[in-house]
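Shall we go through a protein fold together, starting from nothing but its sequence? Please make up or recall a protein chain and show it to me in full. Go ahead whenever you are ready, and we will take it from there.
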Amino acid sequence: MREQPFTFLPLSYAARPPRIVVVAPDGGERWVEWTAAALARLSTVWGCSGSVVVPSSAVGHPAVARCLARLNPDHVLAYSPSWATFDALNPGTVDRLLAERKITDAAAAEQFRQMLRKESWNGSAVHQAEEAADGLRLRLATNKREDLIQCSHLFDDDNARELTPLATVAPTPLIGVPRNLVTSAEALAYAMYVGIEESVIDGQITAEEWRDAATRGTESPLLSQLHPGAAEGCNAVRSHEAGLCVPISRALRSRQRVAVLGDQPADFALAEALRQIRGAVTWLPWDEPGLSDMWLFSGRVSGRLLVTSASLSTEEVQQRIDARWEKRPVRQIEPEEEDRRFDVVAPEEIDLAHPFLVVLKDAWDQPRSLPVTVEPDGSLQSSLSLAAEVPRGLDPDRHRWQVTLTAANHPLPPLAALGSSAVIAADQNPWETFVRAADGGITYWSHRFDFVPSGASLAGSLASPKLAWPGIKRILQVAASAEGVEVLPSPAGKRSAITEGLLGSRAALEALAVGPGWPLLRRFLPDAAPNGCPEGSWWKLKSAVVLSWEAVAAHDDSDWEPAARREQMDQWTSQGVLRRGLILGCGHCPILEFYPLAEISQSYRCRRCGGDNQLTKDRWKPVAHEPRWFYDLHPAVLELVMNHGDVPLLATQYLRSQYGMRQALVCEEFELLKDGNRFVEMDFALATTEDLWLGEAKSNDSLGDSPKVRRREAGKLMEGCALVGAAGLILATTKAEWSPTTVEALKCEIAERRKAEKTVPKVSLLTGLGTSPQLAQLTS
């Protein structure tokens, strides 16, 4: 059995708290109070600074669902309130239960109350939250294996289950908004920033004060007013500092601020999720302009403000933000045509790339290395289990954390299909821990989930799995199989794979397409003309066109030095791209054929008639005292050149020069088959740390000759993206722009898919390949 190649995979290690989505009971008109109760419970959990609360009615909202998918949580939990919480929201409930049970003894009554504090309240709103959490967990494929879910509920009792209490990690005292004060949307808008604590205080905060605090966010002095006697150095419970964490992002520059208007549960959920992805987000659940707007439109933050809503139309959002602008309390001396420093956008137009990752501040971006074997499809299998370790600041007996490993040269998109079976080694115990693709790499639960004996050692209690990094072909196959679709290499893909194998890498193949060698290889095409080649240096045979060095030297490219050209010919010959040989005739039949060097000896046999020949002067062409070497092109490379195989290569070469795609995994052309029938062919696929992209590359500017054909092709390409979980579709062309009819067909198909509530990929247009490439996102 042939051994697989062995290498070392450089990794970046990070420890972090689990990222959680808590689905709160909606409560109808009292959704704010129920959401506040869930946020109060989440505020006691380590990792609350990077987690979100979502009312159950908002889970299925398209804008919210899009953000939650990008958030890629480790757990989706249904909030399970206690009877104590229900009694706090509905005062007198426990007293009525005591009366109904006729419990009059004070001691018995107190015992009953204490028992209820640890009992879950299971009203219909809780059941709805559980159903919403189950559906979301299924869509996002969070920490589960088969039918086993690692953690499904967040209870009000003191049992932390698999989640670490924030208080056991926090280095300083914690403060938040007292729970009894969060009864309005304005109060919740501020509590979203700082968190909620269990304390109850007597006091009254006006709506205007809540609005000012919500608009100013963490810069608001309201928290210190609520805790005048708090010790110096306190941290808000929802601050990253409270959990020894820091937020990191792959974004190159600071993002525009976002304001979310509307007072519905989906508006709060949208703001909550966007805040974890983008950072600077303000939720404005009130309509009336006021003094707080001075912070919204202040010039203290550079960039424009994006304004959106989950419940309001863009027209309604525009009217409301215009009214705030017109009545803003602080104005500068501006010209009549003043620049309104905001843009109204639909939620789906907000860029979710490069989300924040909340990590333990002393345990991230740490270098690691693993010995791995390279599979034929480019997948990597770890040869050793990972060493178990405890990050500084954590205690393995009291704390639970996530381990995240990323490989710069082998990114993994966070696809739901890349569950445990796709990212663990073949001989690994699948039940040791919960493993999945996330954050551009692989993440797993810190502690063993399978049997751990009492008194186990540190190494015996911590997880140390053997992992696998699937290659791009494996990623496509896993994602497609989840939808009952088969992925097969197309004929063009097979030619690309053969050529890539000859050259040694995809990068070398792309370099060939963009370099001076590709035009030279076109001289080997059957329909090529001599074009100034010296006499006898270019021959068109029945099987192929062959060139001698004189023809190569005569190739018109003044920027390609003869010495470099000679070196390239030798390299191609050693790689098998070209074959060096002779043009020989036969003494028994009139055939004239190219014979590679490996087939030549003093005697040779004619390929046509089988006659034996001697290598003598009358057998070689052209007539000369000594034979002249010729070169022919490998058949797979010849077909690749003949079928404009350089266009997809130009596309992926350019894309891999862009930020965020430089280490992308690339797959050559492939076909998707549904029910055994060819459905669509894709020219390339790219996998990055954040997304899977599919692409179509053409030398013309159209998807078809008629509106019907263009719509059909656009639909097939977008459906192909949906079938493998690709976030985006890239249409590339060598032309300066795509035809207006093709762009219109794409927009119509996007509109139809949205109307039918189908998945709509991001569509980008890449133009000018080979000359001046430009990449732009298609705006609908």
